[in-house]
Design goal:
By secondary structure, the protein is mostly helical. 75% of the residues lie in helices and 0% in strands. The radius of gyration is 32 Å and the shape is elongated.
């Protein structure tokens, strides 16, 4: 949290800051001495910070300290500059001096807390803010709780962060920073139900707070109360039509609850007001794909990669729509592009391996499976696919070896047990296969489709179907 925010409009009510800066800069240029009161130095420093002229700000701070050497505020300013350039120990030493001169200077406490947070000394960062809270006539208590929230978030103590946000909002329920952070804290703690009375009370007191409505929508979404979440989102949008993320999140909510056409309707209205980006096009593509309109889905995904050429997930979804349509050559090319962009994505590897197998590129499929196994040695899917490729080409011995390796390493093994059973049938070891299949059907009948995933021909095998029929009732 910055302690030296610059608000030009508020300051110009009392002083023309631009003229003040010009007067200061002319004195520097002409090498003339200039006397400024404390507030005037503050305005100039703020001006330079606001315009990212940090070196100029640092020089003004030095001049201010020459004139006001015992000012805790200017010592804190210099400490902030030192912290910005990561001269941490020097910054802390200056804060010690500033605190000696003026123990009530809140900037000293905030900056010390920031530095301790940066150093990972979280308990000390919290203690500093608690000490500030104990000061007589302490001001801006809501900001102190916000600072503590920031420390707890960095510390990954989200329950404590949640409590600090609630305390801050009890003092100032319209604080936008607190309202924005509230959603994150609720999500990280899953305190959706617990937060509902807080949202409703804030809305009752401030019915036109779009962030309060947004937070209410977020909690209803977390509780999977779809209709209530939609209503809250729509209120937030009605109050503040300028926030582009609100209709987008409403569309995502519709998508999550499988209301794909409603999601598309929201996105269509949104695109009439705002420029579309890759996220909008991608969500449109997912909605069309879910509705079975793969051609339109691909169009949207291509629009997404036009906006963002390295959007690997969009190429992957293009491949998936081609796969559904049985267009394996095009699917392979899309999966290949996704893999080029994201070389360590497990799902992309498996999809490319499957497509390579379908178009007869068995060597490529095996290489991709090996990559997937190297990346995620304890995931069973790559072993399953690799063994399937080998078995498809009659290499039953190596296929079985791959399955056995997977069975030793992976936690989830039912799929691999069915693969082992399929290999036995494919290599005409029908007796062994029957024993294993009956055992699997007795324990995991509901998963027997993995047998067909490995070898589709077994779905038409009368002997196999007779065995499965014995367990179907």
């Amino acid at each position: 949290m910055s302690n030296f925010d610059f608000n030009n409009e508020e300051e110009e009510e009392n002083i023309n800051v631009s003229e003040l800066v010009e007067r200061y800069e002319n004195s520097v240029k002409d090498e003339r001495a200039i006397f400024l009161d404390h507030d005037e130095f503050e305005y100039i420093i703020d001006y330079y910070y606001h315009h990212s002229r940090l070196e100029d700000a640092a020089r003004v701070i030095e001049r201010a300290l020459e004139q006001y050497p015992f000012s805790a505020a200017f010592l804190s300013r210099k400490a902030q500059f030192l912290f910005d350039i990561k001269e941490v120990e020097e910054a802390l030493q200056l804060l010690d001096i500033a605190e000696m001169y003026e123990r009530s200077e809140s900037a000293v406490y905030f900056l010390r807390s920031d530095i301790y947070k940066y150093l990972g000394r979280y308990d000390e960062a919290i203690e500093v803010m608690q000490n500030l809270l104990s000061q007589p006539d302490v001001m801006d208590i809501e900001d102190i709780y916000l600072q503590m929230c920031e420390v707890y978030e960095d510390w990954e103590k989200y329950n404590e962060a949640y409590d600090c946000i609630v305390a801050s909002l009890e003092i100032d329920p319209l604080n936008e920073e607190a309202l924005e952070r509230f959603t994150f804290c609720i999500t990280m703690t899953s305190k959706y139900e617990e937060s509902l009375p807080i949202h409703l009370r804030m809305i009752d007191e401030n019915p036109y707070s779009y962030l309060a409505w947004y937070n209410l929508a977020n909690s209803y979404r977390g509780l999977e109360k779809y209709e209530l979440a939609v209503d809250a989102f729509e209120y937030a949008i009605a109050i503040n039509e300028d926030e582009e993320y609100l209709p987008f999140e409403l569309a995502e909510l519709h998508y999550k609850f499988k209301q794909y056409q409603k999601a598309l309707d929201v996105l269509k209205d949104m695109c009439e007001v705002y420029d579309s980006d890759e996220d909008v096009f991608f969500l449109q593509g997912k909605c069309h794909e879910a509705l079975g309109n793969n051609k339109m889905a691909r169009y949207c995904y291509r629009k997404a990669v036009h906006e963002n050429p390295i959007m690997s997930e969009a190429y992957f979804r293009i491949g998936e729509t081609y796969k559904i349509d049985g267009q394996w050559e095009q699917a392979y090319k899309a999966f290949q592009k996704a893999n080029e962009l994201e070389k360590e994505e497990y799902e992309f590897c498996l999809a490319m391996a499957e497509a390579a197998l379908e178009i007869g590129e068995s060597d490529v499929a095996l290489d991709v499976c090996e990559t997937a196994i190297d990346l995620f040695v304890k995931r069973h899917e790559a072993y399953f696919t690799m063994a399937k490729i080998m078995a498809t080409y009659g290499d039953f011995e190596n296929a079985l070896a791959v399955v056995d390796t997977g069975l030793k390493i992976c936690k989830s093994t039912i799929e691999l047990e069915y693969a082992k059973c399929a290999i036995a049938f494919m290599s005409n070891k029908n007796k062994d296969a029957e024993i294993l299949l009956r055992k699997l059907l007795q324990e995991h009948y509901i998963m027997h489709d993995y047998l067909y995933d490995f070898c589709d021909e077994l779905s038409q095998d009368n002997f196999v179907q007779e065995i499965i029929a014995d367990f179907s009732e």
